[in-house]
């Protein structure tokens, strides 16, 4: 379970060098015996891919878990007034993408205090 001010970073079009820079900083901190700043992130190639994973229904589901805390998928489906099978499938997909987690008792929950979406715009062409 994430503690403190856990933030999930969703990035679209982030260059690989940004990930490498974060990894190098974490390794440097480790060599110096300092704790590395935790970073939880998922990268997407394009905005369409992001929106196919983080649909309005998925945002609603994440919000319900933030407000209601850990619960069974059945409880979540009742709260959202949605079909159990659809909510179960949505939970499985969001677990794959690190947006929600399942605890040792099988309850689903939203571990992040914040989700930050960062979309890199294409470089401007020279005139």
Description:
The protein has helices spanning 16-31, 47-53, 56-68, 73-80, 84-96, and strands at residues 7-12, 40-44, 101-102, 108-109, 114-119. By secondary structure, it is of the alpha/beta class. The protein has a single domain (7-119), classed as Arc Repressor Mutant, subunit A (Orthogonal Bundle), CATH 1.10.10. The chain has a three-stranded parallel sheet with strand order 2-1-5. Helix 4 packs across helix 5.
CATH class: Mainly Alpha
User: How many beta strands in the DSSP annotation?
Assistant: 5
Tell me the fraction of residues in β-strands, as a range. 15-25%
- Written as H for each helix and E for each strand, in order along the chain, the element string is EHEHHHHEEE
Termini separation:
50 Å
Helix coverage percent: 40-55%
Mind telling me the CATH superfamily name?
A: Winged helix-like DNA-binding domain superfamily/Winged helix DNA-binding domain
Roughly how many Å is the radius of gyration?
17 Å
How is the biggest beta sheet arranged? 3 strands, parallel
How is the topology of this model organized?
Elements: E1 7-12, H1 16-31, E2 40-44, H2 47-53, H3 56-68, H4 73-80, H5 84-96, E3 101-102, E4 108-109, E5 114-119
Parallel strand pairs: 1-2, 1-5
Antiparallel strand pairs: 3-4
Helix pairs in contact: 4-5
């Amino acid at each position: 379970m994430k503690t403190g001010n856990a933030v999930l970073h969703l990035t679209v079009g982030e260059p690989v060098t940004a990930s490498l820079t974060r990894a190098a900083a974490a390794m440097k901190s480790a060599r110096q015996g300092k704790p590395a700043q935790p970073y939880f992130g998922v990268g997407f190639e394009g905005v369409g891919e992001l929106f196919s994973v983080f649909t309005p229904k998925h945002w609603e589901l994440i919000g319900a878990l933030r407000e209601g805390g850990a619960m069974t998928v059945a409880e979540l489906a009742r709260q959202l007034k949605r079909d159990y099978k659809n909510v179960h499938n949505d939970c499985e997909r969001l677990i794959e993408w690190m947006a929600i987690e399942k605890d040792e008792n099988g309850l689903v929950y939203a571990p992040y205090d914040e989700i930050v979406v960062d979309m890199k715009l294409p470089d401007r062409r020279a005139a």
